[in-house]
Amino acid sequence: MKLEEAILRFGREKRNGPASRARRRVVFTNGCFDLLHPGHVRGLEQARQMGDVLLVGLNSDASVRQLKGPTRPVIPEAERAEILSALESVDAVVIFDDRTPREMITGLLPDVLVKGGDWPGDQIVGREEVEAAGGRVVSVPVVPGYSTSAILERIREGARASRAES
Known about the structure:
Elements lengths: L2 H8 L1 H5 L9 E6 L6 H11 L4 E7 L1 H8 L8 H10 L5 E5 L5 H7 L3 E5 L10 H6 L3 E5 L7 H18 L1
Parallel strand pairs: 1-2, 1-4, 2-3, 4-5
């Protein structure tokens, strides 16, 4: 789904306008979601419980490279989007190219903006816009023991050990 389609489909005016019969609480979260792991799944499930619709902003491949370096992402954006879309908790996935989802958040103005607890509250992109529009910002706890970077490091260690044994 493109950004414009997501905003048209889930935009605050449309979901809360006079034509809407039932108010739909839209929750938004975002991330790279490279090497999806149980920490991601649990966080998305928690986010979905906060509303009626969960929209996930997914960093594009170019955006991930800007944030994580030239060896990332491991999984291409179309595949990451397909995997996320298959999760029961996720209603829609929108890929964005910027370093942050500020433009998407500003256009959508979700009722709830969710980020992992590893982000300090004052650094959550879109916080000001969402709160100014009457929405709320929620930090969900990070699930201990799960991290894409840690998974990649274990893979590298295994490869180094395998080479050393040869």
